[in-house]
Amino acid sequence: MLASDRVVVEARDKRLLWQSTGAAAVDLESGAVARVGAEHGLPVAVLRAICDPADRSLPPAAMESLSRAGEIRIGSVLASLLKAPLQLPALLRLAMDAAAARRALVRRVEELRRGAKRDQVLSEPDELA
Predict the structure, then answer these.
(1) What is the SS3 assignment for 72?
(2) For the chain, which residues make up each domain, given as ranges?
């Protein structure tokens, strides 16, 4: 995973980053978390779900409509679509990919949670012995 301070929008730029670094994904937040963990001697694990595959560029509305907090501004999405309506299929595909990524992430978190509970039960001392 490659930590970056910017979103990689174009498929060709994603490909170049993979070729030059070998990173399977670019992430904006996890690098900062890992850096703080390293500074404090803490282990860090990252679980991410990718919603924009490397072989596809992000449609303009995806970038123009995000607030600084990462929230989607629907008015900006509509304005972008009015300027460039042909991006609609790519935007809908991104929305479907984002929903699938979220479902996969939630499933994996639940699996990890169940595993942690199972491990906790197995490691607890037998109070009857």
Answers:
(1) strand
(2) 1-48, 58-129
Rounded mean pLDDT for each run of 10 residues along the chain, 129 residues in total? 89 94 89 91 90 92 87 93 97 95 94 82 56
Q: What does the radius of gyration of the chain's CA atoms come to, in whole angstroms?
A: 20
Residue 72 pairs with which residues in a beta bridge? 66
Residue type, 28: L
Report which DSSP code applies to 71.
Answer: -
Residue 71 identity: E
Whether the CB-CB separation of 27 and 1 falls below 8 Å is answered with yes
DSSP reduced 3-state for 70? coil
Torsion of CA 114, 115, 116, 119, to 10 degrees: 120
Q: What six digits make up the tokens of 27? A: 């992430």
Amino acid, single-letter form, for residue 120? Q
- Bridge partners (DSSP) of residue 87 are none
Helix (H) or strand (E) holding 61: helix 60-64
Question: Using N-to-C axis directions, what is the helix angle for 88-123 and 74-83, rounded to 10°?
Answer: 140
